[in-house]
Amino acid sequence: MDVAFFILLLYFGFATVYLFVLAVFSLLREKSFQPEINKLNRFAVLIPDYKENRIILDVARSALNHDYPGEYFDVYVIADGVAPETIAKLKDTGCNVLEVQFENSTKAKSLNSALSSIEQDKYDYAVVLDVDNIMQPGFLHQMNLVHNSGYKVVQGHRTAKNINTNTAYLDALSEESANSLIRRGIFRLGGSAMIIGSAFSIEWNLFRRLMSDIQDVAGEDRELEIRILAERIKIAYCSAAVVLDEKVENWGNYTRQRSRWAAAHLDFVLKYFTKGFVQLFKGNIDYFNKVLHSLIPPRIILLGALSVFFILSLLISDFPFSGWWISIFVLYIATLMLSIPKRFYTYRMLAALLELPKMLLLMLLSWVKAKGQRNKFVSTPHTYTGEKN
Fold first, then answer.
1. Which of 67, 208, 283, 389 is the most buried (most CB within 10 A)?
2. What is the DSSP secondary structure assignment for residue 298, as one 8-state letter?
3. pTM for the complete prediction?
C-alpha cells in the first residue's frame, strides 16, 4: 500500500511542480516581438461551419469588418450542412462561401477542402476561427507583427465571450488558466506554446502540407501541433491578439464537449507516447514537452484527486506521506491562483466555485464516455445571444 501511495505521490507531485513552474513564468513580462521586415501579409480567415445557422451571420459580418486593411484579408465560411437560406445570406454579406458535404463530417475535412480549393499562392497565412469566434480589434495586426518577427505559427489569446452562467464562468476560468500555463508560461520559458483548435495563424503552405493527411474527428489541433513540433518549428503565443469564444452555458453541453476532447486526448497519448521519448533523445524538447504534458491529468481532475488526499491526510493520523500530500495540495492551489487573471477574483467566483464538485464529476463522466466519441463528430450547440453577463 505504501508503494502504491508513493507512486501516486510522485505522479501528482510531478504534475503539480510542472504546472507551478509554468505559472511562475507566466507572470513575467510578455515577450516583445521585434519585426524583421515591414510587410502587410495577406490572410485567409477560415471559419468551418457545421450545421450552425444561428450565429454565423453575425460572426461573418464581424470578421469582414475587422480593422485590418480589406485588400489584405478575405473571409471564408466552409459550410457543411448549413441551410440554403443561411448560405444565401452569407453570400450577401460579401464573404466567400465554400459548400462542402461529407458522409462523416469533421473539421479537418472542411479545412482540407478549403485549403485545396483556394488559390495556392494567394495568401501568406491562414487564420482558423471557430464558428462562434469574434476577432477583436487589432487581432490580424498583432498576428502580422509576430509573423514578421520570424514565427510561422502563432496562437492568439482566446478568451470568453460570455460568463452568463456558472458553467460558462468556470469554463472561462479554465481557459484563462490554460492560457497562462501552457501558452504564455511555456512560451515565456522558451518553449513552444500549445495551440487550441482556433484563434491561431499559420503559414499558408505549411498549413496545406501538414493538414493534408489529418482526418481526425476531435483531435485535428493536436495532430497539427505535433507535426509542427516534429519539424522543430516554434509556436509563438501573442496575448494581445484577442479572439472572443463562446463558453458552454449548461452542464449537458459541457459533458458532450469534454467527452470529445477526452477521446482525442486518449488517442493522442497512445499514438505519441513512445515517439515523445524518441524525440527527446534527438534533442526535440518541444515535441517531448507536448507528449509529457499529455500525461498530466486535466487540472480539474488533479484538483479533485489532491483534495481527496489532502482531506485524508488531515483526518487519518498515520496516512502515508501526509505531510507531502498537504504540501502538494497547497502548492497546487497556489498554482491555480497564479494562473487565473485578477479580473476574475470577485464575489461571482465564489458562487461559481460552489459548482466545482459537479464540474469534477462531469469531467470524470466525460472520460468514461470518451471511447464512444472517437469515431463521430459532435458539434457544441451555440446559444449565447449577447445578453448581459
1. 208
2. P
3. 0.90
